[in-house]
Structures are given as structure tokens and as C-alpha cells.
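Q: C-alpha cells for this one, please.
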Amino acid sequence: MSRRCELTGKAVLTGHLVSHSNRKTKRRFLPNLCNVTLLSDTLGRSVRLRISANALRSVEHRGGLDAFLVKAGEQDLSQNARLLKREIEKKLAAAA
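A: Here is the predicted structure, written as C-alpha cells:
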């Protein structure tokens, strides 16, 4: 399982750990990933995702998982999230 957010694509970054004497050694900055279960109102079921804490705040801000996925770009989403987005869009188109 990769250390990548399924909704925003946020991943591991690399940088330097700098000591007092200014020696630099490599380090990794890990994203704050959480395993969450989100409810899709359109599909009427819950979905398990591994997303960053920042993405969780964005989902809540936009009004839920469905609204977030409809607005999200395809390039940042994982394969699982892309399939969810397509399902939601199909269901919304059928309801309209």
C-alpha cells in the first residue's frame, strides 16, 4: 500500500534533516494519512478510503464525498476513487 492520499494525490516528500552544525542528512516527510469510512449519499453506501487529514477537511468543507468527487480532477484521484466518481456521475445523470 503506497503512502499516497486517494483523493488529493498527496504523497511522500524528501528533504534534509539539518543539525546544529549544519550537516544535512536525507529524511522523508510523510503525509498524515487516515483510514476513514465515508458515506456516499448518491450511492447510498459507505466507502473505505485512505486519505490525508487535509483531504478529510476538504471533503467536509465541500459538503460530503459526492460533492468533492464531482468537483475533483481525474489526475489526482486513485483508481478506486475514479471508479467511485464515475458511479456517482452515472447515478446523478440518471436521476436528472
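A few notes: The first strand starts at residue 13 and ends at 18. The chain has a mean pLDDT of 95.
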